[in-house]
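Input:
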Amino acid sequence: MDRRSLIKHAGIAGVLAAGAAPAVHAQATIRWRLASSFPKALDTIFGAADVFTKKVNEMSGGKFSISVHPGGELMPAFGVVDGVQQGTVEVAHTCPYYYFGKDDTFAMGTAIPFGLNSRQLTAWYYDGNGLKLFREFYDQYNIVNFPGGNTGAQMGGWYRKEIKGIADIKGMKMRIGGFAGKVLTRMGGVPQNIPGGEIYQALEKGTIDATEWIGPYDDEKLGFYKVAKNYYYPGWWEGGAQVDFYVNKAAYNALSSEYKAIVECAASHAHTTMQAMYDARNPAALKRLVAGGAKVQAFPKSVMDAAFKESMALYSELSASNPNWKKIYTDYSNFRKDQNLWFRFTEAQFDRYMQSAKL
Amino acid sequence: MDRRSLIKHAGIAGVLAAGAAPAVHAQATIRWRLASSFPKALDTIFGAADVFTKKVNEMSGGKFSISVHPGGELMPAFGVVDGVQQGTVEVAHTCPYYYFGKDDTFAMGTAIPFGLNSRQLTAWYYDGNGLKLFREFYDQYNIVNFPGGNTGAQMGGWYRKEIKGIADIKGMKMRIGGFAGKVLTRMGGVPQNIPGGEIYQALEKGTIDATEWIGPYDDEKLGFYKVAKNYYYPGWWEGGAQVDFYVNKAAYNALSSEYKAIVECAASHAHTTMQAMYDARNPAALKRLVAGGAKVQAFPKSVMDAAFKESMALYSELSASNPNWKKIYTDYSNFRKDQNLWFRFTEAQFDRYMQSAKL
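Output:
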């Protein structure tokens, strides 16, 4: 090699070295859009999408950026699953159970009446068969899912009148999430589908007798305690409601292995911190609600028992008619049985002692 | 520009383009060592360090790699905090409460008797003041910490004789973790410090009367049920024991913002999945232990009350003598009070119903 060639090659080596400097990024630039099913006002749930996209952005040095769009901005709040399936957006942040109309199996992805609690559901997803089974199920919808938050056990809602027994459920008009409405119907109640913004007025006027929403932190914002003081627990239809990130399969598969892992871990961070937000913020909200006149009461056992019986009967029927449901529910219900066998000992006893202790 | 120059520049452009291909990475290559306090046999806890390093490696495309070393390999299992402080290793995976001898404040980082449960502790770290307060506290030790797993509420251990009241605690020799030993001593018990590998023999021979370890999944491996059948709950000194990743401050500060976020989210993923592993795996282990003869029993209320009273008295003394303790415990205990106020309603009632339901 002559001197001239040497210099030329040295120049190229210098360029290559410069190419390895932090200013130039190896990974492709990615721009995604995330459609949330939630309004910005639900800062805990909607906020989990912000946490997710912020972390993806940070971990990729700004090369992989995802814009977040509240429910209704790009598409209807409950249209986001179709948006992801069709690739209109690359990712959605939503509750799987909104889509039980497509297949009741979706409901198990968030919460079913008398289902797993928050920790148990996370355990089923990550160390049981939950994620594997749901990835298989969602494949037909072009979705790759990631757990993306949990609300914890929700409250049982706001009632204009006290619930003293199953007779008070008969004919009761209640705004309640879709799948749980099936159980309420079987109990003699009348589920109502009312947009979030119209619930307060309907409850005030008596167009509906009751409504459920989430828990103290979110419920407080909607002011239901002013028009229906009876605040019941537990929300037996949502013992731990999970939100998912739904990623379009083709968009996901096109990612580098680095970005795939970044999506996974950013989702885990959002999953952990959303539950933390609810747990940390609910207590003060509950105190304010009680100070505002909310009367916190437990559902009578007869109501819980009727709801449990109807839920189990519904699950039997679904297992007989829907192979997707049967496959996942068989695993889910076995897991649930074991979880409750174990949690009743040290977890429950520790918590019970702490809850009655003079702290 | 003449044709020759054009060709030359095109060549350089080509090289630059090649430099942007996935094979060349912009981020600096980082090699860290992680010292775990745990043996490989504790696959759930030790495994969380593997999860963490695997995800850091994946997210960085192999540019940021961390080797994992079990307890004793690079330094003594409980010497890892000094290793991180001095920069001998860049990261440790350990339980803060091992270091209560340096300052009792460390104990709150994992678990203190009658403390927060797993979800509550995570909530305090991520949405309360926990992480902020501990980052300030650890700064003097050159540590930046990240929650890195939780065991959930542990069991209360294995006892050769039944515990019917506080009289059975007096003089009882028990292998128990350090900080909790302070409370046991105040109750009249005699805490023993015995390496993990020697506990079984000491328990078999009667050199000790009891031992605590973790929960069914880990306890089963050590076989204690063969020599001390009474398996008590709850482990009131560990209602949710957290493991942390301790990162050397200088090493952390030298990371790019991308790698800092990658460390944070990989830790969150490990935090979430470690709790999931324990929750998913404990039930089957408990069933096997019971089949093997373990007698699962609740501590009498008198024992719980004595332990609670002594714990609160200890915390008062520490608050009076240790400003670090006082600062963090004041926040921690207020948070704990609110958490238990809230959790007693819908979370506890939902769980209680499920635990008594015919599933």
